[in-house]
Amino acid sequence: MSTNPQKGRSRSALRSDPIDLARDNWSRAGWKAASDPMGVVTSVMRVHQLLLAEVERVLRPLNLTFARYEVLMLLHFSRSGQLPVGKIGARLQVHPASVTNAVDRLETDALVERSPHPEDGRSVMAAITPAGRELALLATETLNAEVFEKLPMSQSAQGELLRDLQEIRRSFGDFA
Question: Which of 75, 91, 108, 163 could form a disulfide with 128 if both were Cys (CB 3.0 to 4.6 A apart)?
Answer without folding.
Answer: 75
